[in-house]
Structures are given as C-alpha cells and as structure tokens.
Amino acid sequence: MYNPLRNIMNTDGSRTNLADCGDPTPSNGQANIPDGTQFGSIAVISCKPGYTVQGNALLKCLSTGRWSGNTSCVAGKEPFNLPKTLYVFLSQKRS
C-alpha cells in the first residue's frame, strides 16, 4: 500500500530516509503492522492465550525511530486491567 509519508522527496530531488522503529513484537505476543515499521506506521499488539497486554496495545512509529510506548505480554493478568464486574460481563459466553 502506498503511503506518501514514506516517500518524501526533498526540494533538491534527493530522498529522505525515514526512521525505522524495528519490530515491536513482545515476548508471548504478536504485532500486526500492515504498513511496515517506518515513521508513521501503526502497530497493534496482541498476546498469546493466557497472556494479556500490559501497556499500550496501539503503538505509532515516531520520527525518532522509537515506538510511542512500551508494551509487554504478562501471564495471568486480566485484559486491559478492566474493573472485575466489566471483565466478568465481557467474558460471559453468549447464547
């Protein structure tokens, strides 16, 4: 998919190399990064069964070459630290 943010041409005709943030995939997790890992890209972090995201599940690659937050997958925690009543409601099977 063409993204104009990644193809910047300077006024002299040269091209600017944009920051690359690298792979943000945490241990016991995965990152969905449809547009690559360069400046402006968005990563959605998810975790393997039995693990939940700690930190931001949505990251943006910044011009500094770093992702906008730190994310990890932690065993045994409730998803997104939801209040217990809301977590139970969302976890119930629908019939």
Explain what the structure shows.
Residues about 1-5 and about 80-95 have low confidence and may be disordered. With about 100 residues, the protein is mainly beta. Helix content is about 10%, strand content about 25%. It has one helix spanning about 85-90, and strands at about 30, 40-45, 50-55, 60, 70-75. The radius of gyration is 18 Å and the shape is elongated. The strands form 2 sheets. A 3-stranded antiparallel beta sheet has the order 1-2-4, with no helix packed on it. It has a two-stranded antiparallel ribbon with strand order 3-5. It contains 1 helix and 5 strands, in the order E-E-E-E-E-H. The chain starts with about 30 loop residues before the first strand and ends with a helix. The protein has a single domain (about 5-90), classed as Complement Module, domain 1 (Ribbon).
Structural class estimated from helices and strands: mainly beta
Report the average pLDDT across residues: 78
Shape label: elongated
CATH architecture annotation:
Ribbon
Count of DSSP strands: 5
Helix content: under 10%
Summarize it.
This protein has about 100 residues and is mainly beta.
Task: Please tag this protein with its features.
95 residues, mainly beta, Complement Module, domain 1, three-stranded antiparallel β-sheet, two-stranded antiparallel ribbon, 8% helix, disordered N terminus
